[in-house]
Amino acid sequence: QAYLSRSNVAALAQLAAKPGWEITRTLDDIKIWTHEEGDVLSFKVEMQVKIPSPLAFSLLSDFKLRQEWDKHFLTCKVLQAVSGEEKIYYVTSPPRRGHKPRDFVVLVSRRQPCKPREPYTVAVRSVTLRAVPPSPEFSRSEILCAGFQIHRKSSSSCTVCYFNQATPGVMPYLAANLAGSSKSIEDTALECIKFLE
User: Fold this and answer.
1) Per-residue pLDDT tens for 147-172?
2) Domain limits for position 185
3) Taking every annotated instance into account, which residue ranges of this chain make up the domain START (predicted)?
4) Which residue in 133, 136, 140, 176 has the fewest CB atoms around it within 10 Å?
């Protein structure tokens, strides 16, 4: 578990640091970037939020609050509190037309910055728990690497970056093309800002 937690946080830091991010959309407080590598498409949503970074960190790292702003989260419950910094959650997503609803078992790792310039981190990845085998009602889905980095801007504002590395299985959810998906990403980002502020 210690290895999984470390690799969860490290994978998000590596994804954030990759060269070659391309900006695809800019709005007032939101920028959307994409990164393609083979059949893996990653996206980054950068949001300007008018609250202090420690508060954004505490709100975004509690996944039970995610349903309040993310319509892709239907239910979310804690399966296991591994430590103060790590929890395993069971998440379900609403069904898409013609598809079963999806479910996820995810490890969420929270990290406060060690140095002043480092971001707050909330890293997410799928894990396997024997106690929660796939069920026929749901399509078990996998998150390779996702999460938030929260950078302090001032005592009362921060930049929240949401990352998601989309596997081919998640791609249909992001709509058939990026134009369509950036609309859904945008709406979710606006809801996120509204929730945080």
Assistant:
1) 999 999 999 999 999 999 876 555 54
2) 1-196
3) 18-179
4) 136
